[in-house]
Amino acid sequence: MDPIGSYKIKRLPPYVFEEVNRLKMRERARGVDIIDFGMGNPDLPAPEHVIDKLCETARKPRTNRYSSSRGIPGLRKACARYYQRRFGVELNPDTEIVATMGSKEGFANIAHAIAAPGDVVLAPNPSYPIHAFGFIIAGATIRHVRAMDPEEYLRGLHQAVRHSVPAPIAVVVCYPSNPTAQTAGLDFYKEVVDLARRHDLIILSDLAYAEIYFGDEPPPSILQIEGARERTIETMSLSKTYSMAGLRVGFAVGDERLIAALARVKSYLDYGSYTPIQVAACAALDGPQDCVDGYRATYRERRDALVDAFARAGWPVPAPEASMFAWAPLPESFLEEGSLEFSKRLIEEAGVAVSPGIAFGEHGEGFVRIALVENEQRIRQAARNIKKLLNAAPGARAHAAE
């Protein structure tokens, strides 16, 4: 039997990011300095007190044994305190919280826990690939709903619920959005909960970017809406909030039946994150939060630098509302080329890496995602390189701003 020809593998297209990454690695091997906005991989250091706690705990022999797939009790209690402090939502750490190895692993295992072959799930498009492919790997069917903004997604959800055969079992929401960087308020979540209640849908909420926002109001949790917790599971991650991406730690919260289902799946698959990492996560959640304010300020400064520098280069980029990404329409001269070919051209001709919009779904075509993971000097250098590329393009405007 050829495993490459198996049913599940056939349902997975080539990972578009890999095509760009291979080109990026090739250019670096040739000695090209690539300014890399491709992956949302934080470059800022994790908080010193968190790393100190990690090292301190790792030196204790007992902490090098197997951990718990549900998460150590201390971490689940810290997660509950975070939700109470941040959202005013009270959670039972024993029945309504499970620690995960980042939100991506948590989301994928949720898909296996709740979906069966043939089940229909409504997912935003464009969106982070795991929102769709977690369910596809589990054998379910995805009905993609265009989601260039929250209002459009709501309209599409109402239509999709009416016309999906068989009826959907779940709906995915992700705000602040990866990749569009837009936010949603409590009115949006109230309508999602009302829709889910009327049609008996499970709600899967990805809140990984809750602490990276640039407006006055922090993004809410759907669990703040009355009736949400009876049908919702929400994933969080410490990866971006505390610049702890490589430590792979997050958590899922919500309806105790859904949490129990996730915990059962995880009990067969893993023993949880390394215990010192979980203890370090407790230090992050319960410790001083000025580090989070600092990260947010840095991302804001980078956002402003990127929007300004790219506009001067002749490529207007809308200022993102939240997240560590900008969602940029292709320059007019390259629209026909498409997001993947334009992303390749940026690497080869400007030494700049971005993520093609098509990697986030068919409705992401015409855009690229730019991660704010390079410092302001590198951002301005990227803009200068891009300006040369744009000015050399057919039909380029000779009067591009200095």
What does this structure look like?
This protein is of the alpha/beta class and about 400 residues long. It has 2 domains: about 150 residues, Aspartate Aminotransferase, domain 1, CATH 3.90.1150; about 220 residues, 3-Layer(aba) Sandwich (Aspartate Aminotransferase, domain 2), CATH 3.40.640. It contains 14 helices and 12 strands. Strands 2-8-7-6-5-3-4 form a 7-stranded mixed sheet, with helices on both faces. A 3-stranded antiparallel sheet has the order 9-12-11. Strands 1-10 form a two-stranded parallel ribbon. Strand 3, helix 6 and strand 4 form a beta-alpha-beta unit. Helix 5 packs across helix 10. The C terminus is likely disordered.
- Our Rg estimate from Cα atoms comes to 21 Å
Which strand order spans the largest sheet, edge to edge or round the barrel?
Answer: 2-8-7-6-5-3-4
The residue-averaged pLDDT reads 93
Question: Considering DSSP H and I runs of 4 or more, what fraction of the residues is helical?
Answer: 40-55%
Count of DSSP E strands?
Answer: 12
CATH homologous superfamily label of the largest domain = Type I PLP-dependent aspartate aminotransferase-like (Major domain)
Helical stretch tally: 14
Reading the helices and strands in chain order gives HHEHHEHEHEHEHEEHEHHHEHEEEH
Task: Assign the structural class, choosing from mainly alpha, mainly beta, alpha/beta, alpha+beta, or little secondary structure.
Answer: alpha/beta
Structurally, how many domains make up the residues? 2
In CATH terms, what is the architecture of the largest domain?
A: 3-Layer(aba) Sandwich
- Described by the principal axes of the CA atoms, the overall outline is globular
Strand content: 5-15%
Q: What's the CATH topology label of the largest domain?
A: Aspartate Aminotransferase, domain 2
CATH top level of the largest domain?
Answer: Alpha Beta
Ends distance? 60 Å
* Main sheet overview: 7 strands, mixed
Flag low-confidence runs: 397-402
